[in-house]
Amino acid sequence: MKLLVKNIGRIVGIETEGRLRRCGAEMDRLDTLDDAWLLTDGERIAAFGRMTELGETDADRIVDAGGGMLFRRSAIRIRPPGLCREPRAGVSGQDQRPFV
User: Fold this and answer.
1) Closest C-alpha among 62, 72, 83 to residue 21
2) Does the pTM exceed 0.85?
């Protein structure tokens, strides 16, 4: 299913250079695109751009974002703060508790 989200006030976290990830100092940069649209095909982003560049599409569903913001979901999984994944010495896996 193709989904078109139009009239997005700002897309945050876009990658225009086709890289999978950023490392080191590159992570300080967060690219954005104002007055935008985004087209998905299934669970993948098919295209995005400025509203002035949006032509005809064959989208199955169209959603008007009404100027709202869209944040890219990060591919990095972050564990909730304070949770220990590695067993602590002398504590069984069942008894793991968050660090305080």
Assistant:
1) 72
2) no
